[in-house]
Specification:
Layout (H helix, E strand, L loop, with lengths): L7 E6 L6 H11 L3 E3 L2 E3 L13 E3 L2 H9 L3 E7 L2 E6 H9 L3 E5 L2 H10 L4 E6 L3 H10 L5 H16 L6 E4 L3 H24 L2 H17 L7 H13 L1
Parallel strand pairs: 1-7, 1-8, 2-7, 3-4, 8-9
Antiparallel strand pairs: 3-6, 5-6
Helix pairs in contact: 1-7, 5-6, 7-8
The structure holds guanosine-5'-monophosphate.
Guanosine-5'-monophosphate binds next to strand 5, strand 6 and helix 4.
């Protein structure tokens, strides 16, 4: 199979409950070049989660042994658990020319940026904190304490959203999927142009992309505005 574009990594972050999984499922269905890395975690499986598909569920000891052996591309502690990206499959997919999406939280994203300065990143923003809370509650498996913790963490994560190349607001799933697909397509085109050494086109593409950020990816008002809106929604 001809493959003119090399593989690349793409970070996809967003608070727990922002809808990342739903969007990624749709993208994988639409685009055969996209693979979503399966993370390793020490948290217990939620109902319906499948070993090797949603996560590799391991013990704390197993996770720490993997860190020790240098088998994690990145890892972080989130809540009371370890989460991390196994290195070997990601390396293989990149060599195969795949678009590898890492669905990771903000600390992991920092570690990836340090290793791959050119990596692109997308942040999925919930429409408000109120909606986020509702979505977390709809997951019947989260305890009240867990929901509170996740909401607190979410506020901290939302403050980091400006570190991402793109912010996608998840108002309607279909729109968010379209935005993410557009970002993927554009990055592929960008890499193809870089590969062909067409610098003029690269310059144009960059300008194009800035306009794009404003038009399509719906850059948000400052985070404070968002928080206020979320709190107001919450009081309704
Ligand atoms: P959850 O428990 O809701 O499945 O995931 C909690 C958080 O951990 C989410 O923000 C998710 O994106 C993040 N996460 C999942 N896998 C990884 C990983 O491999 N590395 C890092 N750093 N975060 C991850």
């Amino acid at each position: 199979m001809s493959n003119t574009v090399g593989g690349f990594l793409l970070i996809f972050s967003g608070p727990s409950g922002s809808g990342k999984d739903t969007i990624l499922h749709r993208i994988v269905e639409k685009d055969e070049k996209v693979v979503v890395s399966v993370s390793m975690t020490t948290r217990a499986p939620r109902e319906g989660e499948v070993e090797g598909k949603d996560y590799y569920f391991v013990t704390k000891e197993q996770f720490e042994a993997n860190i020790e052996k240098g088998e994690m591309l990145e890892w972080a502690v989130y809540g009371d658990n370890y989460y991390g990206t196994p290195k070997t499959p990601v390396k293989k997919w990149i060599e195969e020319g795949k678009t590898v999406i890492l669905e990771i939280e903000v600390q992991g994203a920092d570690k990836i940026r340090q290793q791959f300065p050119d990596v692109r990143s997308m942040f999925l923003m919930p429409p408000s904190l109120h909606v986020l809370e509702e979505r977390l509650r709809a997951r019947k498996t989260n305890t009240e304490e867990d929901i509170k913790k996740r909401l607190e963490t979410a506020k901290g994560e939302i403050e980091r959203a400006n570190d991402y190349d793109y912010i996608i607001v998840n108002n309607r799933v279909e729109d968010a999927v379209e935005d993410a697909m557009e970002i993927i397509m554009r990055h592929r085109r960008h890499l193809r142009e870089l590969d062909s050494g067409d610098e003029f086109y690269y310059g144009y593409q960059y300008k194009d992309e800035v306009e794009y950020i404003n038009e399509v990816a719906r850059v948000l008002p400052p985070v404070e505005d968002f928080s206020e809106r979320g709190l107001k929604d919450g009081r309704k």
